[in-house]
Structure to design on (228 residues):
């Protein structure tokens, strides 16, 4: 149990385009979903926390207008990187949890902006 | 300010021996700790956790030890197997916090030699 699916796994696109990443909890209803970013050989850095039906809470330094998060249901959250530029290239990972349980992670999305 | 630190970026161990991965934290408000295992291009997989009311938690080959006075925790893997080769992250959270967000260490790359 506790499977989290993230799609797509790899995206390559031109600078200036917007990219949407989906995160789904397949076999449980997630009270909270999280979005992380990981640079090469570095730790996972939390970008934002989202609860179904409410606005996401962004960490300090994360531009909310740049990284749009929608948490439409208890099983789906989306992260949209708007007007992406090469510096946005990174590995983005989502996680989901139900109350009292550890976070379970998706397999991540490798985003490359040309 | 790195609140969770893994000072060893890598560790090499012979198959069958014990692997000991270490983690230090600075925030005394942390009361719940987790270890995750991560393969390249995949999301982290939850391994084991421990609450601050305990000093040891065991699950099969994995044991986590917590020393609150030293703000130190360690993960013991015995016996180590080649399939254990991966990056191991420790993470900490405030369990009673509304969002239970995790703060990750920088990771330790474990290589188990056959």
């Amino acid at each position: 149990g506790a499977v989290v699916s993230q799609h797509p796994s790899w995206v390559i696109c031109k600078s200036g385009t917007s990219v949407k990443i989906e995160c789904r909890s397949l076999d449980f209803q997630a009270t909270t979903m999280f979005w992380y970013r990981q640079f090469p050989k570095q730790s996972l850095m939390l970008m934002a926390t989202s609860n179904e039906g409410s606005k996401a809470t962004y960490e300090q330094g994360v531009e909310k207008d740049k990284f749009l998060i929608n948490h439409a249901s208890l099983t789906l959250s989306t992260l949209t990187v708007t007007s992406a530029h090469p510096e946005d290239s990174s590995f983005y990972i989502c996680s989901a949890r139900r109350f009292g349980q550890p976070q379970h992670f998706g397999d991540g999305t490798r985003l490359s902006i040309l | 300010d790195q609140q969770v630190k893994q000072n060893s970026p890598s560790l090499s161990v012979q198959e069958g021996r014990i692997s000991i991965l270490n983690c230090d934290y600075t925030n005394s408000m942390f009361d719940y700790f987790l270890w995750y295992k991560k393969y390249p291009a995949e999301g982290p997989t939850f391994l084991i956790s421990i609450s601050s009311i305990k000093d040891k938690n065991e699950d099969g080959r994995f044991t986590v030890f917590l020393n609150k006075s030293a703000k130190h925790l360690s993960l013991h893997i015995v016996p180590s197997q080649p399939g254990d080769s991966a990056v191991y992250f420790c993470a900490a959270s405030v369990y009673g916090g509304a969002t239970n967000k995790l703060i990750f260490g920088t990771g330790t790359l474990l290589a188990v030699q056959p």
Summary: Chain B has a mean pLDDT of 93.
